[in-house]
Design a protein that fits this description.
This protein is α+β, with helices and mostly antiparallel strands and 466 residues long. It has four domains: 87 residues, Nucleotidyltransferase, domain 5, CATH 3.30.420; 156 residues, Beta Barrel (OB fold (Dihydrolipoamide Acetyltransferase, E2P)); 111 residues, Aminopeptidase, CATH 3.40.630; 81 residues, Ribonuclease E, catalytic domain (Hypothetical Protein Ychn, Chain: A). 33% of the residues lie in helices and 26% in strands. It has a six-stranded mixed beta sheet with strand order 16-17-18-19-21-20, with helices on one face. A five-stranded mixed beta sheet has the order 3-2-1-14-15, with helices on both faces. A five-stranded mixed β-barrel has the order 4-5-6-8-7.
Length: 466
């Protein structure tokens, strides 16, 4: 799922199972949810080999290590391309749904404090740094570090860093590029050369560096984030480790909010409701008054319900990570003033996303309202539920649900030698996942016996004392 942007509010991190879930809570309401299951990340740097030239698409297919072949457009690579050629490429877009992996040959190695563009030559400073003397001093310092015409873009985060820390960041990124060029000099097979920091980890780090509250459920994740703050010389009083018998998302009512975000119907504060129906080609949203203030002037009532709906629709689009064409059927409004208010409410709610991610089409002749939102990763529904049976958890979601439920029982006092009964398919899955068994062993003090029970559903389990 897409991350993007800087976020304020309270960040909740659930890292007790195989997947990591990160929730952003604004004004005590779930605003965004990210589910991280590891694997390939955007900006991973690969040594790949051109497997096919496709002139009709002005692109080449490149064989990669560990993921499907990626598409490399000709205009994203400097120089000619031919079959069998070894290339250094970066993942610019991960594959999802029916979209394949997209690549670029214009390398940008991202760090916390700067971005290194090999051969880019230019030195860029944050626009927020206005003082001419400070700009000149920083530019001179970066110029003294520059090797082989590297392009260096300093992030705003690094403006408060000591000069030695900035130099250390450059050396770290430079070492990654040297590792990549060494791999290109003696290629043997496609390989992942440098693992990029995920967008989610970058967002978490920015959140922490801005002194925003972050609560973590999971020892390893908490220790890692505390180390990040310590390395940057930042206090860690806003980083909190969750304790207690209940899991963090249960304690903060996030689980209930996630369940609601998977439903079609959404109630509106003040009356009325909306129905959200995602499909392959578009997402249809219907606004319903639901008997709200039935005795009032119908046009005034329609405008008020529609304005409440507009704000909620944008909230749900972000929370559910819905992309593509969205068509809204609002309550019929007789005046142009009402339609203008609805349009303004949608635009205001989207805010900065209108700069590129969201394109507004407005009202059609039939009274429908259209906009499109850039697709960025799987929707929340696709991430959690099965595609063939959309009301059931996917196997990955079911496995993590069982792990979290078992850990919750451990926190309530269950420990020692146990037998864990699960569905036969889930028993096979657990037998293949050493990391999952280790999580259970850490919780109980000893790994439980995994037993198959054909009477259990994929997301169900039973614990028995041995």
């Amino acid at each position: 799922m897409s991350v993007g942007g800087n976020h304020t509010g309270r960040l909740l991190i659930d890292a007790v199972a195989l997947e990591r879930r990160v929730a952003l809570v604004d004004n005590d309401r779930l605003s965004r949810l990210w589910i991280d299951r590891g694997g390939p990340a955007r900006f991973d740097l690969h040594l790949g080999r051109v497997s096919k030239i496709m002139p009709e698409m002005a692109a080449a297919m490149v064989a990669l290590d560990g993921i499907s072949d990626g598409l490399l457009p000709f205009d994203r690579y400097s120089g000619p391309l031919h079959e069998g050629q070894w290339v250094l490429v970066q993942v610019s877009r991960l594959g999802f749904e029916d979209k394949g992996v997209k690549l670029t040959g214009r390398i940008a190695i991202e760090g916390v404090g700067m971005i290194l563009r090999p051969g880019g030559k230019q030195i860029e400073l944050p626009r927020k740094l206005k003082d001419p003397e400070q700009r000149a001093e920083l530019a001179g310092m970066l110029k003294s570090l520059q090797v082989d015409g590297d392009g260096i873009m300093l992030r705003s985060t690094a403006l408060d860093w000591e000069r030695d820390a900035i130099a250390g960041e450059y050396r770290l990124l430079r070492a990654q590029w040297q590792k990549a060029t060494a791999a290109l000099a003696s290629p043997a097979k496609p390989a992942l050369v440098c693992k990029a920091q995920s967008e989610l980890d970058q967002m978490i780090e920015r959140h922490l560096m801005s002194d925003n509250e972050c609560i973590v459920d999971g020892t390893d994740q908490f220790v890692q984030l505390r180390g990040v703050l310590k390395a940057r010389g930042k206090p860690d009083d806003h980083l909190v480790r969750h304790t207690g018998t209940r899991l963090l998302f249960d304690d903060q009512d996030v689980e209930e909010a996630i369940s609601e975000a998977l439903q079609t119907r959404v109630e509106l504060a003040g009356g009325g409701w909306i129905a959200i129906e995602p499909a392959t080609a578009l997402c249809a949203i219907d606004v319903n008054a639901g008997g709200t203030d039935a005795g009032r002037d119908s046009d005034s009532r329609a405008i008020e319900v529609n304005l409440r709906a507009a704000i909620e629709i944008v909230h749900q689009i972000r929370l559910r990570n819905i992309g593509g064409l969205v068509v809204i059927d609002p309550l019929r409004m007789q005046t142009r003033n009402g339609r203008d208010k609805f349009d303004d409410a949608i635009r205001t709610a989207f805010g900065a996303e209108l700069d590129g991610a969201v394109q507004i089409g407005g009202f059609t002749r039939l009274g429908l309202y259209e906009f499109s939102r850039q697709r960025a990763g799987e929707s929340l529904v696709a991430r959690i539920l099965r595609k063939q049976t959309p009301h059931m958890l996917s196997q990955e979601s079911a496995l993590n649900s069982i792990l979290r439920a078992v850990i919750a029982e451990c926190r309530s006092g269950r420990a020692g030698a146990m037998a864990l009964y699960v569905a036969p398919g889930m028993a096979e899955r657990l037998a293949e996942r050493i990391d999952a068994v280790q999580i259970l062993a850490n919780a109980f003090g000893v790994a439980p016996d995994i037993m198959a029970d054909q009477n259990l559903d994929d997301d169900a389990y039973r614990l028995e004392k041995k």
